TrEMBL record:
This is Adenylate kinase active site lid domain-containing protein. Pfam families: ADK, ADK_lid. InterPro entries: Adenyl_kin_sub (IPR006259), Adenylat/UMP-CMP_kin (IPR000850), Adenylat_kinase_CS (IPR033690), Adenylate_kinase_lid-dom (IPR007862), P-loop_NTPase (IPR027417). It comes from Emiliania huxleyi (strain CCMP1516). The keyword Lyase does not apply. Belongs to the adenylate kinase family. PANTHER family: NUCLEOTIDE KINASE. HAMAP family: Adenylate_kinase_Adk. Keywords: Kinase, Nucleotide-binding, Transferase.
Length: 241
């Protein structure tokens, strides 16, 4: 028995054993899927089960700008000029977040990488920071026609972000938020023409990234056109590998 363990009390040893048994193995996960595919439903479940942090790049950018971090300032300057935030800035913001205690068990990355170049840069950053590597890339597969139906019927409560659906999850009173009674709205881009174009672009953009991770044995497609608990069970089986 190592000297440091020999000096530890039984209580301390049991506490450490319990901590190690309760702490899930570290996992770094990328979720891939178009709007309406169910990532928003599954990500919080994965986060809670494996004690991970959820890094949605859009939210990270807004938070970094609001916090006035070095990377946030750089992003704000670019956005104010109407430009696209560079890969280096986005990866820098991800780097800032994965070094926090919340990401100690790993992370769920949502919305990045979108290109093979971004995937390569992400791999390089993870290696250079010594925080491991990507363990799983899970793609949520749903037929485009289903996605259009899901999203075109979506209703949003602007103040809270609560979402409803005219067919699948209607509010108690048509057009009104269940909790406040305030009006629900449809997003301007939640229409069939816009969505069809977005989905076509998504598939063309995503395939090379998916192929990149598939060559590394990290890619798993999931049939997400099912009930949420069935999708959760499939994801759990993937993450148990």
């Amino acid at each position: 028995m190592p000297a440091d363990l020999a000096r530890a009390s039984t209580t301390d040893l049991l506490a450490e054993l319990k901590r190690r048994m309760e702490s899930p193995p570290k996992k770094n996960i990328i979720l891939v899927g178009p709007p309406g595919s169910g990532k928003g439903t599954q990500a919080p479940l994965i986060k809670d089960k494996y004690k991970l942090c959820h890094l949605a790049t859009g939210d990270l950018l807004r938070a970094a700008v609001a916090a006035g971090t070095e990377m946030g300032k750089a992003a704000k300057e670019v956005m104010e000029k109407g430009g696209l935030v560079s890969d280096e800035i986005v990866i820098g913001i991800i780097k800032d977040n994965i070094s926090t205690p919340d990401c100690g068990n790993g992370f769920i990355l949502d919305g990045f990488p979108r290109t093979v170049v971004q995937a390569e840069k992400l791999d390089g950053m993870l290696t250079s920071e010594g925080v491991g590597h990507i363990d799983h890339v899970i793609e949520f597969k749903v037929p485009d026609a289903t996605l259009v139906e899901r999203i075109c019927g979506r209703l949003i409560h602007p103040a809270s972000g609560r979402s409803y659906h005219e067919k699948f999850h209607p509010p108690k009173v048509a057009g009104k938020d269940d909790e406040t009674g305030e009006p629900l709205v449809k997003r301007k881009d939640d229409n069939e023409e816009t969505l069809t174009k977005r989905l076509d672009a998504f598939h063309k953009q995503t395939k090379p990234v998916v192929d990149y991770y598939a060559k590394q044995g990290l890619y798993s497609p999931v049939d997400a056109d099912r009930k949420a608990d069935s999708v959760s069970a499939t994801i759990a089986a993937i993450l148990a590998k």
